[in-house]
Amino acid sequence: MNEGIVKKVRNNDLELKDRLVAINRVTKVTKGGRTFSFSAIVVVGNENGVVGYGTGKANEVTTAIAKGVESAKKNLIKVPIIKGTIPHEQLAHYCGSRVFLKPASHGTGVVAGGAMRAVLESVGVTDVLAKSKGSSNPHNVVKATIKALVNMRDAYTVAQDRGIALSQVFHG
Question: Whole-prediction pTM value?
Answer without folding.
Answer: 0.88
